[in-house]
Amino acid sequence: MTRQAAFAPALAGSAFLLAGWSLLAAATADSQLIAGPVEVIAWIADNPGLIGRALAVTLRNAAAGFALGNLAAILLAAVALAWPRSLNLISGLALVVFCLPLIATGPVLRVLMGPGEGPQIALAALAVYYTTLIPLLTGLRAMPAAWLDLVHSYGRGRLAELVHVRARAALPYLFAGLQIAAPAAFLGAMVGEFTGAERGMGVLTIRFMRAMDATALWAIAALAAAVSMAAYAAIGALARHLSHDRPPVILAPPRPVAGSRAGKALDGAVLILAVLAGWWGAMELLGLDPFFAKRPWDVVAALAWAPDAAATRAALIRATGETALFLLPGYLAGLALGAGLATLLTLRPGLALPIMPVAVALRSIPIVTTAPLIVLFLGRGATGTITLVAVMVFFPTLVACLHGLRQAPGQILDLFRTYAAGSLRQMIHVRIPAMLPALFAAARMSVPAAILAVTVVEWLTTGRGLGSLMALSASTSNYNLLWSAVVVVTVISALCHAAVALLERRVLRVYAPEQLRR
Amino acid sequence: MHPPSLTRRRLLAGGAAGLLVGQAGLRPARAQARTAVGLQLSWLHSVQFAGSYIARENGWWQEAGLDVTLLQGGPNAPVEPPVVSGTALVGISAADYTAAAVAQGARFRIIGVAMQKNPFVIASLPADPVRTPADLMGKRIGMALANRPVLQALCRLNDVDFDAIRIVPTQYSAQPLLAGEVDCLLCWETDLPVAMAINGIQAVTMLMADHGYALHSQTYIATEDSLATRRQELVALMSGEARGWEACRADTDAAAELTLRMFPDAGLDLATQKLQAERQLPLMFSDLTDQMGFGWWSDDGVAANIETLALLGHEVTPDLWDRSILEEIHAG
């Protein structure tokens, strides 16, 4: 492909996005919610210093968080592979840390790290490491057993296996993780600025929101989206550059689900103990004041025998019920949308031009900017909430599945082509089965993402459920209730994650048994 | 209490002290270490905290031996944790937040009250205005659900049927009002109505403080521990605040200009900041503060606050307020 030929579709995609944006702005002109591209460009031209400095600060923090978060994910994955017994512990702890809501971690990070850039970088890193870790763990197992046997026949151990075989096989999955991470890091850095940062795009978002300056608000949104799209495209180009091997045929014998029931119970107990010890130990070690950094014991007391324990439990149960109502539909809708779009884009690659920029934009524009729009179109009822959750969930699924669909083994596709089997037939019999590990990785990492999305939406629009309860308890210094809610969110995430993992084992036992070996 | 009178003896003493200080200033030993303290603001930088900026800009804190860091707030930056942890010596809070934190075991005292009148208003559009609490009946109000107790208290104070008002949970923005999604908003006199005015929309505002909602806002809080061990720093900090706010009152436009100069990256608009300062200052000064000094409160004021706090579900005693720092500042 020549250079011009590569740029033409990108230009066409941008033109499509700009046209759509203009139309939307014109259609909603009365509501003063959206500013069109012309106004936005004029605003940026008028305020280059202000927006330039803010962009530089946020971009720097996002880049630092992106690097740290992904490095952490790679290290964790390497440890889990080199020492398989730690796999459950590592992925369990990673899930728990990812579940911690910003509203609980923000003040803690700010007190620990002071007024500088620390919390923004930390929150950007926290926003990305999990969505890299999960695909990576999948990728590190996605290879024919013969390759590993070859390493073993030379008498080499797990480390050589990791370096020579697994790392290479995992590359496409790693790049999927990095592509998902790019917009997440930028958004994480912006939201991190809500914890009292001095400057940056997030600070300006809050300011312009209150000042009803739709033009400035959309200028920020446009820049955030543009940065994310550029990073997404650059990582994609790097991925294409580095992985030209055709995906191998992975043949592995189906095997029974590993591990006894007692072994699993033991794993669970070890994980729970590690979480409690880590929680307590970290807070003690850092000398965090128990007024706002509640220990496990405080939460148990608040739920079991404090004078207002019954009220606390009732509030939590009611909020959990309200949250659950939106969680499952939003999660499933997001998954279906992501996987469906990925299938569609693989069948009709031309559609990627208009769809991918919109997908990246949706993921990278702060929800505080988009929420009023969705409320305007769909209202504050269930439809609006579920749509918002689905919007926040579908992107990781889409990216993971796109990469997964590309993992269809070349020889088998050749075989199908030899028999003149159409692309739909190839999709059903080859690509979708090849995508399943990626789909389940997406399903697992979307569990905490969906729960965090629901809580944010509740806080912003419906004012019900756990999200609203957490915001309320933080504003009234009821940190016992806040940390209890954090525990509830974590437990729900862990349970849903376990349910997905169970389903995953049943399906992959047939379609991708290599994922189940240790 | 006697207002300080200027006697000849005092003038001479002051002059002598001035000379001594002047001489000390010439000596190299002047480079004494200043104490670093933090002041945790309750929100993003804006003219809302102009008094602090004026104090810092004029070096009034430095003269008193303090090196003050102004810690910005934000939507996810509660004031109480940094004050409890000692990251900030003083925080800017409000009586209801402080009461809630004290109920949860924090040992805070209110040591000064910047906003004598609570800034909460009900903002509506002239076509369908809310001018008295009774007008609220049958209206849709946009607000954060967290403020439900505030509206409930207003209704109780004015015998309005709370259930006759429909609450729509909205983001803190005037947009739902302008889009016709709600009839009125619960907000601050100094933010959303100012934004609307700058956009050419004159909103009708009903100040809740004029209808019995007595609640000290923008209050300075410190821990009992600091009050016991770091009095000198507290006095110096609050003294700078008092001076800063008096200067702000004298020229609100200059205060707005200083705010923009100090925070060029905050995305502030000069006209907005000027209008905001103009609307904020009347809430901060009263006959009482003219007589007793910035930040003061009366026992009657505390009693009224305790009543409002009870309506909001907070039980507090007058011990929550500690006037000793202000007494020290305004006595001299």
Topology of this structure?
The complex is a heterodimer of chains A (518) and B (332).
Chain A: H1 3-27, H2 37-46, H3 48-82, H4 87-99, H5 102-113, H6 118-139, H7 145-153, H8 158-192, H9 201-210, H10 214-242, H11 261-285, H12 296-304, H13 309-347, H14 352-364, H15 367-378, H16 382-405, H17 410-418, H18 423-462, H19 465-475, H20 479-511
Helix pairs in contact in A: 1-14, 2-10, 3-4, 3-6, 3-8, 4-6, 4-11, 4-20, 5-6, 6-8, 6-18, 7-8, 8-10, 8-14, 8-16, 9-10, 10-14, 12-13, 12-20, 13-16, 13-18, 13-19, 15-16, 15-18, 16-18, 18-19, 18-20, 19-20
Chain B: H1 8-26, E1 35-40, H2 50-57, H3 60-63, E2 66-71, H4 80-85, E3 90-93, H5 95-103, E4 108-115, E5 120-124, E6 140-143, H6 148-158, E7 166-169, H7 175-178, E8 184-188, H8 192-198, E9 204-207, E10 217-223, H9 224-229, H10 231-250, H11 252-262, H12 270-284, H13 287-292, H14 299-311, H15 324-331
Parallel strand pairs in B: 1-2, 1-3, 6-7, 6-8
Antiparallel strand pairs in B: 3-10, 4-10, 5-8, 5-9
Helix pairs in contact in B: 2-10, 2-11, 10-11, 10-15, 11-12
List keywords for this structure.
heterodimer, A: 518 residues, mainly alpha, MetI-like fold, 2 domains, B: 332 residues, alpha/beta, D-Maltodextrin-Binding Protein, domain 2, five-stranded mixed β-sheet, globular, thiamine biosynthesis (chain B), metal ion binding (chain B), NMT1/THI5 (chain B), iron (chain B)
